[in-house]
Amino acid sequence: MTGSIKGLERFDSPGKGRGLRVTSAFKVGELLLSCPAYSSVLTVEERGSFCEFCFNRSQRLARCGKCKKAFYCNAKCQKADWPMHKLECSAMIAFGEKWCPSEISRLVARILVKKKSQKGACPSEKMMQVGEMQSHLEDMDNEKREMSESDIAQLHQFYSKNIDFPDHQELLSLFSQVACNGFTIEDEELSHLGTAVYPDVALVNHSCLPNAIITFKGTSAEIRAIKDMKPGDEVFISYIDLMYPTDDRNNRLRESYYFTCECQECQSRSQDKVKLNVRKRSDPIEEEDVNNMERYARKAIKEFRASKHYRTPSELLEICEQSLEKMGSVFEDSNVYMLHMIYQAMGVCLFMQNLDEAIKYGEKLIKPYSRLYSPLSLNLSSIYLKLGRLYMTMDKHSAGVQLLKKAVAIMEVAHGKDHLYLAELHKEMAQK
Known about the structure:
Blueprint: E1 8-13, E2 17-22, E3 31-35, E4 39-42, E5 62-63, E6 71-72, H1 75-95, H2 103-118, H3 142-159, H4 168-181, E7 182-186, E8 192-197, E9 205-206, E10 212-217, E11 220-225, E12 236-237, H5 246-257, H6 264-268, H7 272-275, H8 287-307, H9 313-327, H10 336-351, H11 355-363, H12 366-372, H13 378-393, H14 397-414, H15 420-430
Parallel strand pairs: 9-12
Antiparallel strand pairs: 1-2, 3-11, 4-8, 5-6, 7-8, 10-11
Helix pairs in contact: 2-3, 2-4, 3-4, 8-9, 8-10, 9-10, 10-11, 11-13, 13-14
């Protein structure tokens, strides 16, 4: 297993296929696995803020002299990235503004080049191979197959001069593998930085009651224990946001990963009532009205996601406000669907630099998040960070430091005490 440490082994997990389990005891916060990316790609939106090769965040990055689009820490990073960047460098110059492959197409192009460079090499018996990752090609519906066909067309359009493509069916299978097994690399506030493939990490199965958490150091994935583990315990992470009720979680799992979770929480649904909090009134709200509002909420969330691509920030904020007003007639502010829209409204306000409104929305999230998420949740540390940094910006130093310290306590376990993000946070808290 590439990048492994002592105390882990692959095994056949009952009802789940392959999995990873520990062969020795691990305490909360201990590192289970550190794994370099097999292949990774920085999202276009973050170019100029992060190094294209190592994903280091810096304000002093050097620009590629040819395409003027990619940025690097130094000549060493630029040279190391050239075998991959050359796939895009000349194409970006040739196509100009028309250069627009999807992120998954960009990643697949890099995987194809990496696989070709490794052809003939003797793979380690311990190393999980990209080809071994589960595909689920046969489970794809027409919509997903059409998306893959579109991605393949982009691959041929933008990369045909640099890549010898396998046959169409093999490409479809590879896109399906990446869609099911790829990881979104996120920063400390859970903002999207890029996408990567980690064949070894793809062995780790999902649970809505995870005992481990995945974070990123540059382009490397790190998995740490968030519960004490004994020899023989299977390693579980969460593939999804766990705030939502059981049906929503499993709909997402079936849609993206083609399975239904059967963990203890999914069977007991013990938290669903709290997550779907309904307003208390002298005349109780009818169950049918609650069900109708839940359907409206799911539809509103889906439509908001779609509208991000073509609506203005002001229009998006109006959508949030209208949804919150309608849902608020039935749901408490702590209802997860209300929280979802409050979070989106906060994000739009941040984008618009309306900091007072962003703080107003953020303050509505703190208490419900602390109840609905586990104490070591990255979603919880993320909201502490966002609101804490907002307070610091608005010269509310004491309140800001208080929230940033709460974020640090979570991140020291989830990211490890030596992570660069923590060093940056300590600097922020020291500023006056």
